[in-house]
Amino acid sequence: MGTAMTDVSPAARADLTPTGTLRVGINLGNFLLTAKDPVTGEPQGIVVDLGRELGRRLGAPVEIVGYPTPGELADAATSGAWDVGFLGAEPQRAKEIDFTAAYVEIEATYLVPPGSLLREISDVDREGVRIAVPEKSAYELYLSRNLKHAKLMRAKGGDAAFKLFVGEKLEALAGLRPRLVKDLANLPGSRIIYGRFTAVQQAIGIPKGRVVGAKYLREFVEDIKASGLVARTIDRHGVRGLTVAPKVRNE
Questions:
Q1: Above 90 in pLDDT, residue 19?
Q2: Which of 64, 123, 165, 175 has a CA that sits 20 to 30 A from residue 82's CA?
Q3: How many CB atoms lie within 10 A of CB 231?
Q4: What is the pTM of this model?
């Protein structure tokens, strides 16, 4: 650990723990990064461990604030309900939230039904193609900005998107690759398209205006990547489909 990570300035601590407790916002809908303890029902997983590590370095107690979807977590940025949030860094969210660089990346691609003629990522963006997608997910925001011809059919969460895809006989389902592997098993003959249309940058956000806290968080993320803590945490939870994000230079 560098000195930057052990010496926390009063200004950084005030930005990150205005109530004296580090309130960590997490998206309970991302099964790669969060889970529920089967006995206690308490949130656990990679982001809970990393949030607790941040609290340890700040010398502050940690409260986990769970949201069912990433959209609800992002929408609560201005409410004062959380101090740091673990979610995908997206331009639309950056209006209210300052993000670190990514700590992990997750590939997003498409599942297509049995007999589909769609083979490549580029095949999907065509007239007449309807894509089921969980609303306000980082990759839905990406597709909303980038698709030219295909039509997005939004649903509330991954399970609802899969039901919409099957029930309405849509041409594609957009999702994170590890989630689509599960969906694949529930639709015999379906196929995951090779490649990706984006890689969701999972980062840590802080409500805008907390400049010193944001700088500390950026240094924290680079430190936990470089020290191998992120990789060890992924291994400990046995999660597949996550890649530790490359390091970046801090300003």
A1: yes
A2: 175
A3: 15
A4: 0.85
